[in-house]
Predict the 3D structure of the following.
Amino acid sequence: MPTDPVLVVHGGAWAMPDDMVEAHIRGVNNALAAGWRVLERGGSALDAVEEAVVVMEDDETFDAGRGSFLNRDGRIQLDALIMDGSTLRAGGVGCVEHLRNPVRAARKILSESPHVYFVGEGAEKFAAQHGLPLCRNEELVIPREVERLREYQAEANSHGNELFAPTTDDVTISHDTVGAVALDRNGNIAAATSTGGTLNKAPGRLGDSSLIGCGCYADNESAAASTTGWGEPIMKLVLAKWTCDRIAAGNLPEWAAQEAMNYLKQRVNGHGGIIVLDPHGHFGIAHNTPRMAWAYRTMKKQDAGVVREG
Ligand code: GLY
């Protein structure tokens, strides 16, 4: 008997100001609609998470694709991962500078390469060889982010420290990494995550989002998860896999998502959010930040918001 599909997406977890809430909810709803179109016609969870993430990469509201944070040199460097829970195949890209939709390149790696992970120029070359267009880095940069970096670096200089970085528990710093998890009619689950990383990051810095088990994970025998938040603490805990393992041990995703946020805070003083979905259609959405943009759809219900009560 076919499984009822489920789709959950997120668009970042932080102290999102009131005037940004509407754009975030619109953005996650648009992503939900794109992914759901795939699932309702019987498409795969893998295709659904890819299409949902592409919509958020194309939306300048989020720290993914065009409009992402700039690194210390004023350039955009993007990371993305996609993973198929039915085969454990995965594709990841890190530090790419000339791709509008890094998740599409990640998908090409998953589908058409014996390798799992490509970085920088090699990733872009692979993407181009597999039919994806390259763009100039400047095409990904928007004035809002130029100004944001300028203000940030001025503040850093006023502290006499050009390498100044916020503390990892500063929830006022935007973390608009995007992600999606899906369950399709065949009972397969998948996950995808995409990010521009952190503001003023050092060139070459890779966060959690594109690392298997950290920013994203999917296994039909446990669950699919996508995280958002400050990457370094999340990486140290391999948090997406940690959460899926709790579900494999018999816990519900709702509980595991909340536990993951507690663990992140208690163990490494980290902050962020997570979405997680099991192959039975149970899902959890949790964050330890004041707000997180999320949306979900099942056959019976659809909802979106920026606060999820635990
Ligand atoms: N979670 C996104 C990053 O830290 O790169």
Remarks:
- DSSP finds eight helices and twelve strands in the chain.
